[in-house]
Amino acid sequence: MPIQNKDFLIEMPISSALIGEIVKNASNEDIGAHSIFIGQVRKDTINGKTVTGIEYTAYPNMLNPEMQNIIDTVSAKYQDIKKIHILHSTGLVKTGEISLLVFVACGHRKDSFRAMEEIVELIKEKIPVWKKEIFDDNSHQWPSNKQ
Length: 147
What we know:
By secondary structure, the chain is α+β, with helices and mostly antiparallel strands. The chain has helices at residues 16-26, 60-77, 109-126; strands spanning 3-4, 9-10, 33-40, 45-46, 49-58, 81-89, 91-94, 98-106, 129-135, 140-141.
């Protein structure tokens, strides 16, 4: 079973320093490939209004079992996985800041690519995280999480 973080949520944007620490802590002689997905808040324009940030809400008691199920499912499918680390922000994340990190370390690159992509798709499909897009005029909307 891959080593996995216990806390999937972080109450702030994900910093590049934190990403660097995760990669550094995963390095060992059995790992030949690290795949990283970094989800960043876009400065979209919707109906003439510009997104300035997204406020994320999640409930750990709902989210944690679903995240662990994703990890267990993907780990069983790709047995070359050595480590998985997932973080999702809660609270306000401004445009240009990072809100999602999926890190997969494997012995070989193909499994790391495939596993990382599958994890990201499963997160989008199954994880109960709600997002409120904040616009430059201080209005907001609740978009779907399926993109």
